[in-house]
């Protein structure tokens, strides 16, 4: 790396040294922006949980009333009369009191039932607020993350896109964010709720009856161990299923997308064999998972239920001794179900946690990525450009490593000149033009525009003066007009039309029923290659750039269209510093300077006449085209 | 079980099956082979449900026979009359007997739970076993169908669509057969059984206790259908967020080149915000579902206890006190709890089962799609091709009634190079697609060495034809394997030799890992020209008897193209080749040039003949030079090219 490199970029790596806190903790830190909804959710959670714990208590009360009433009723119902009187005497009761007791018990029972309904509604309302606000919080968090990711990737340099595939970046902005969101919405609050419920329930159980609580406590550690075993067994199995399914889908994908190739090479049988093997792999893994689950699920189900049965056995003695009421037993077994809910939740949360921390890591990988192309703090705004472009000993390596794609390239273009770049596939032509708008930064050497090192300029002002037509045309969904005005959304309709006319696009645009308002499908799929290309040219033309770059590939079009495009391009180049990668000899011949590249090096420069005499490679290239384009006789020669 | 309130289940694409009975019949055919596993599943489920339905009864008997003895309702054993007197203290031998009785019943209860767990566990596996086998058979059938379907199908349907249909539908089936169906079945069995048992035990008490069930059903279905509707809207929003994202990542270079970062970010934020709003709206319903169900569960608990309690005290006119006991009240509490859980599950999983059936429907419809290009009965093996190819009054159409080719007749002699030119949509690609029978003609015949291509097996025909397509498809594997696709048993040396031959070797060597470089999706990382070179090497390795190049060198520079042509001339000595190109350098060497327009041959002849004729080809050809002249005032151009044209 050389001295002129901006300080920000040069020091980018060492600065990273201090260790950041774990990605998940950082992600949770983003809750700052959702403070209000987080606090509401937590408050609602607290209220809802406490109210929930009241229910078994209320049911117990009802049983107490039933018990009292039942005893009174049983005594009153004893037949015959003398036996009843004996029993009443023995119990020290009289008929009037017992009738009152029975009636009061009935009244209290009804009252308690009403309270249960009220509490249920109360609990429902707060549980709803809790879930809804948690959802709100997590959606807000996901919103922030998606925006942050999008903003970041919009500004990353091209080398980032070379290293990362669209699909992978998409996954980070979608499923990774979703994983994180689920963890925040369910995992984090769920954990708080689970711990709260677990602790409070245990306390209540111990206060109610320590002996019975001990039975429960004996089951608890067993449950924890089982959940841990369950998690550690299931996770790798799931991961393996996922792996195998995606291997299967890859084969499927290749066979659908590449169906013509498969057929052309008669590979149906081999592909089927491959697919069957993969399908068998999925099948076996699914059954393996099934076997594990068929043991694990019932075990967990058993443990969750066995407690309430065992409690009956354990409670019968104290009940009969009169130390415990049936109501106590009933509330105990209701608390027991409340105890197993958080246990299940915690198992689920652990798996969410693992997923979310992996996702958080991947998300921060993007958010922490340093763009290779950075603007200096004191970058200059370049208001006017004449168009002198100079390459001085430029060497370029992708990712600053590996073989140099460009080696020591030097040339100088005067304002208004047309520069043609020539060379075989992979010789570095496209790299040269990618360096001018700083899609990449040079590894060594420098590039100047009107004498300014382009790294000293603001990126916006540099690119604002450059119009570029890339090799692979990419259009955006929207209308044709939107696409042409992509670089200057404020352009008037007249200007757009003028640009389209100059790009030989106006006629075909007008042939559509909707004209300039015709919608362009995703990636411009409703237009032919040649039409897309002409829209891309119009798009560049509208900028009225002083520097024009044409990575001219007219490969997609038939030759009548090609000649129209060519004509448009020639108009476009007049009076501008133009860099052209051309397959067509006529364009090259008219160039003010031709640069011949071979394996990343400039092997010859000069005008056509000069090169025809001086450069063997150029003459060879020229002849290969001339043979095709014009003179069949020369082939024999 | 669904701690997210079923959000995950509700946020799924659901579709209602259209033709239920037909789809069931189709599935039945597949499941027929595994009838034993299916029958086992049902038997085990019923037995398992029986065990859980018996559980509340065990608790009830423990209470009614021993804890609070009640002579009428204790059916398990005979209760001594003195146990029923609430005034007597429980002690001594009686206490021992009663504790032992409860102990025995507790063990019976544990035993029933064990039985239930084991049976349900096995049912889970038998169901999965049958399901996985059926899914695997469907996968194989689908894959087979993908290879059978005509290319016409692929041009009518987008590859991504076919893919997502196949993978998503199989995925849905996986969920349905692996989990949802079993849950729904066992839930339905449980609920129905429990309700029947409750009604049998005490129908008045049962009806009052169950009064909340219809409310539960209605709320669950209401909230889940509202949530699904809301999620459908949310999905549309997330779809636009994704489209936005996809487009901006794919078009990142343009966005930066045109300084459009700010605008794209603003646009994204807007759609992202709409997505958030839609999701929060959907959350309104999902967040309500489980609190409401839970609250109703508590209400039903209250109802059971209050009705049972008042009944026990003889305060309810319509319930006979004698038919009730404390044990029965406790049993009813358990029954109603056991009934309300499955109801929520059925509601949540029902849609999944529906989607599974609808997914099956789509899979079957794809399987039913007719394959039109297949080996005819009695098709022979194509003998080694010499290379005389004739089109006899050939017409072709992709959609019935729209002719893409109309009465095309021509003949190619062995060893000739035939070029097709013409504007986009003229039918050039269609012509060459007919030679390896990617499509069949609708009229006329295509013959190779006098044999109609429809009378031979597809395998034997296509194995002899090498084709490089307009849209190069590379697999996401190494460069080496991509080239080897042309001939699977080729050695590494042969692969490299083929790459050398077509001038692909120099750039491959300069890739980071050389021939072992793994190519990304659709050959990403390579330029269009480099991708074409690999595709050409693939065909060179195959060493075909007929070569077809459809714009195969359009992105390769002219010098490399010359070298490739020279190499093929050597390789294909005496064999026939077809070329579609717009570049004149490619066409000029052809023995015959056919100019197509609107599906018909307008002109043919050698390049020079056609130029001399000064017809359509001449006009097309000249258009390039005319406009070049306007720009080029250098006489040398005229000197170099125009006289040659005049020949």
Could you name the key traits of this structure?
heterodimer; A: 637 residues; alpha/beta; ABC transporter transmembrane region fold; six-stranded mixed sheet; four-stranded antiparallel sheet; 23 helices; disordered N terminus; B: 647 residues; Rossmann fold; 22 helices; 63% helix; 9% strand; disordered C terminus
Kindly describe this structure.
The complex is a heterodimer of chains A (637) and B (647). With 637 residues, chain A is an alpha/beta fold. Among the domains of chain A are: 189 residues, ABC transporter transmembrane region fold (Up-down Bundle), CATH 1.20.1560; 114 residues. Helices cover 66% and strands 9% of the residues of chain A. Chain A contains 23 helices and 12 strands. In chain A, strands 6-9-10-3-11-12 form a 6-stranded mixed β-sheet, sandwiched between helices. In chain A, helix 8 runs antiparallel to helix 12. In chain A, 46% of the residues are buried. The N terminus and C terminus of chain A are likely disordered. Chain B is of the alpha/beta class and 647 residues long. Chain B folds into 3 domains: 362 residues, Up-down Bundle (ABC transporter transmembrane region fold); 116 residues, P-loop containing nucleotide triphosphate hydrolases (Rossmann fold, 3-Layer(aba) Sandwich), CATH 3.40.50; 40 residues, no CATH class. Helices cover 63% and strands 9% of the residues of chain B. Chain B is built from 22 helices and 10 strands. In chain B, the strands form 2 sheets. A 6-stranded mixed β-sheet of chain B has the order 6-7-8-3-9-10, with helices on both faces. In chain B, strand 9 and strand 10 form a beta hairpin. The longest helix of chain B has 57 residues. Chain B is elongated and about 125 Å long. At the A-B interface, helix 4, helix 5, helix 6, helix 7 and helix 8 of A face helix 3, helix 4, helix 6, helix 8 and helix 9 of B.
């Amino acid at each position: 790396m050389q001295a002129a490199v901006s300080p920000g970029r040069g020091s980018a790596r060492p600065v990273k040294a201090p260790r950041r806190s774990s990605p998940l903790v950082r992600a949770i830190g983003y809750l700052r922006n959702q403070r209000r909804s987080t606090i509401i959710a937590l408050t609602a959670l607290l209220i809802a949980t406490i109210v929930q714990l009241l229910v078994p208590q209320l049911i117990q009360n009802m049983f107490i009333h039933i018990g009292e009433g039942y005893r009174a009723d049983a005594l009153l119902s004893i037949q015959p009369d003398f036996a009843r009187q004996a029993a009443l005497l023995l119990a020290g009761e009289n008929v009037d009191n017992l009738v009152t007791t029975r009636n009061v018990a009935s009244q209290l029972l009804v009252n308690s039932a009403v309270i249960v309904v009220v509490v249920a509604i109360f609990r429902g309302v707060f549980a709803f607020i809790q879930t809804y606000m948690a959802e709100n919080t997590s959606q807000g968090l996901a919103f922030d993350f998606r925006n942050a990711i999008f903003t970041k990737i919009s500004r990353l340099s091209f080398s980032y896109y070379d290293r990362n595939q669209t699909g992978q970046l998409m996954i980070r902005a979608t499923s990774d964010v979703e994983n994180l969101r689920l963890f925040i919405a369910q995992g984090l609050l769920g954990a708080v709720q689970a711990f709260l419920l677990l602790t409070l329930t245990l306390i209540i159980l111990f206060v109610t009856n320590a002996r019975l609580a001990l039975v429960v406590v004996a089951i608890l550690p067993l449950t924890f161990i089982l959940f841990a075993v369950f998690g550690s067994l299931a996770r790798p199995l799931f991961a393996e299923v996922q792996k195998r399914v995606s291997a299967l889908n890859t084969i499927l994908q290749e066979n659908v997308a590449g169906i013509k190739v498969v057929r052309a090479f008669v590979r149906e049988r081999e592909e089927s064999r491959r697919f069957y093997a993969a399908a068998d792999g999925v099948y076996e893994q699914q059954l393996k998972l099934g076997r594990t689950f068929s043991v694990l699920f019932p075990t967990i189900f058993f443990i969750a239920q066995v407690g309430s049965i065992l409690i009956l056995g354990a409670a019968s003695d104290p009940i009969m001794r009169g130390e415990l009421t049936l109501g106590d037993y009933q509330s105990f077994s209701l608390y027991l179900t409340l105890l197993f809910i958080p246990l299940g939740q915690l198992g689920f949360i652990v798996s969410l946690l693992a997923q979310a921390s992996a996702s958080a890591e991947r998300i921060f990988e993007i958010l922490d990525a340093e763009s290779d192309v950075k603007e200096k703090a004191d970058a200059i705004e370049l208001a006017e450009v004449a168009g002198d472009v100079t390459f001085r000993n430029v060497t370029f390596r992708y990712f600053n490593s590996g073989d140099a794609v460009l080696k020591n390239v030097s040339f100088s273009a005067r304002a208004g000149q047309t520069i043609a770049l020539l060379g075989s596939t992979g010789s570095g032509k496209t790299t040269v033009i990618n360096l001018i708008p700083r899609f990449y930064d040079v590894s060594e050497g420098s590039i100047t525009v009107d004498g300014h090192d382009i790294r000293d300029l603001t990126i916006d002002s540099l690119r604002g003066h450059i119009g570029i037509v890339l090799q692979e045309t990419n259009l955006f969904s929207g209308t044709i007009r939107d696409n042409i005005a992509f670089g200057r959304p404020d352009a008037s309709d007249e200007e757009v039309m003028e640009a389209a006319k100059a790009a030989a696009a106006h006629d075909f645009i007008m042939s559509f029923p909707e004209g300039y308002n015709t919608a362009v499908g995703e990636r411009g799929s409703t237009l032919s290659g040649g039409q897309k290309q002409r829209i891309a040219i119009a798009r560049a033309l509208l900028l009225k750039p002083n520097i024009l770059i044409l990575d001219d590939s007219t490969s997609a079009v038939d030759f009548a269209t090609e000649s129209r495009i060519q004509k448009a391009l020639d108009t476009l180049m007049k009076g501008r510093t133009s860099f052209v990668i051309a397959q067509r000899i006529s364009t090259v011949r008219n160039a003010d300077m031709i640069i011949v590249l071979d394996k990343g090096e400039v092997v010859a420069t000069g005008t056509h006449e000069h090169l025809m005499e001086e450069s063997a490679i150029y003459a060879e290239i020229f002849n290969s085209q001339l043979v095709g384009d014009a003179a069949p006789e020369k082939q024999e020669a | 079980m669904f701690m997210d309130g079923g959000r995950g289940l509700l946020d799924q694409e659901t579709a209602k099956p259209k033709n239920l009975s037909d789809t069931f019949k189709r599935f039945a055919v597949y499941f027929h082979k595994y009838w034993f596993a299916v029958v086992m599943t049902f038997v085990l489920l019923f037995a398992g449900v029986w065990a859980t339905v018996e559980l509340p009864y065990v608790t009830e008997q423990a209470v009614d026979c021993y804890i609070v003895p009640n002579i009428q309702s204790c059916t398990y054993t005979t209760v001594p009359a003195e146990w029923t007197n609430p005034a007597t203290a429980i002690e001594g031998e009686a206490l021992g007997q009663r504790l032992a009785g409860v102990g025995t019943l507790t063990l019976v209860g544990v035993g029933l739970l064990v039985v239930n767990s084991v049976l349900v566990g096995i049912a889970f596996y038998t169901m999965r076993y049958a399901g996985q086998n059926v899914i695997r058979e469907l996968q194989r059938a689908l894959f087979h169908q993908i290879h059978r379907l005509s290319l016409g199908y692929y041009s009518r349907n987008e590859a991504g669509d076919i893919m997502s249909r196949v993978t998503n539908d199989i995925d849905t089936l996986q969920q349905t057969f692996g989990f949802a169906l079993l849950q729904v079945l066992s839930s339905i069995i449980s609920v129905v059984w429990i309700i029947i048992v409750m009604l049998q035990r005490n129908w008045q008490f049962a009806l009052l206790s169950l009064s909340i069930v219809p409310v539960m059903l209605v709320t669950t279905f209401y909230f889940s259908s509202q949530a699904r509707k809301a999620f459908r809207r949310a999905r549309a929003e997330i779809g636009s967020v994704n489209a936005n994202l996809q487009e901006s990542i794919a078009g990142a270079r343009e966005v930066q080149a045109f300084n459009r970062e700010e605008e794209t970010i603003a646009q994204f934020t807007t759609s992202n915000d709409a997505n958030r709003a839609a999701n929060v709206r959907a959350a309104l319903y999902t967040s309500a579902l489980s609190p409401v169900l839970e609250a109703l569960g508590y209400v039903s608990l209250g109802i059971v206890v209050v009705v049972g309690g008042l009944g026990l005290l003889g305060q309810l006119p319509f319930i006979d006190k004698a038919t009730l006991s404390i044990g029965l009240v406790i049993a009813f509490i358990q029954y109603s709890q056991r009934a309300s859980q499955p109801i929520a599950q059925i509601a949540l999983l029902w849609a999944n089962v529906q989607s599974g059936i609808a997914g099956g429907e789509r899979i079957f419809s794809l399987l039913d799609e007719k394959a039109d290009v297949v080996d005819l009965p009695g098709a022979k093996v194509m003998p080694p091709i010499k290379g005389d190819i004739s089109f006899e009054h050939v017409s072709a159409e992709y959609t019935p009634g729209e002719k893409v080719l109309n009465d095309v007749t021509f003949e190619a002699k062995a060893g000739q190079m035939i070029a097709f030119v013409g504007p986009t949509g003229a039918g050039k690609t269609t012509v060459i697609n007919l030679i390896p029978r990617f499509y069949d003609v609708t009229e006329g015949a295509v013959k190779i060495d006098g044999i109609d291509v429809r009378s031979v097996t597809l395998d034997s025909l296509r194995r002899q034809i090498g084709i490089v397509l307009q849209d190069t498809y590379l697999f996401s594997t190494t460069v080496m394997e991509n080239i080897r696709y042309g001939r699977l048993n080729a050695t590494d040396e042969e692969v490299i030799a083929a790459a050398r031959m077509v001038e692909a070797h120099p750039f491959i060597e300069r890739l980071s890992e050389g021939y072992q470089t793994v190519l990304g999706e659709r050959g990403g990382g390579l330029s269009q020209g480099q991708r074409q070179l690999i595709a050409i090497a693939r065909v060179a390795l195959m060493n075909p008897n007929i070569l077809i190049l459809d714009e195969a060198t359009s992105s390769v520079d002219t010098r490399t193209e010359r070298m490739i042509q020279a190499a093929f001339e050597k390789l294909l000595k005496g064999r026939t080749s077809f070329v579609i190109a717009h570049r004149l350098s490619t066409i000029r060497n052809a023995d015959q040039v056919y100019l197509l327009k609107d599906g018909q041959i307008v002109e043919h002849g050698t390049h020079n003949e056609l130029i001399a004729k000064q017809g359509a080809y001449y006009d097309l050809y000249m258009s390039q030079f005319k406009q070049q002249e306007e720009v080029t005032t250098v006489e040398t151009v005229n000197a170099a090219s125009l006289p040659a044209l005049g020949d």
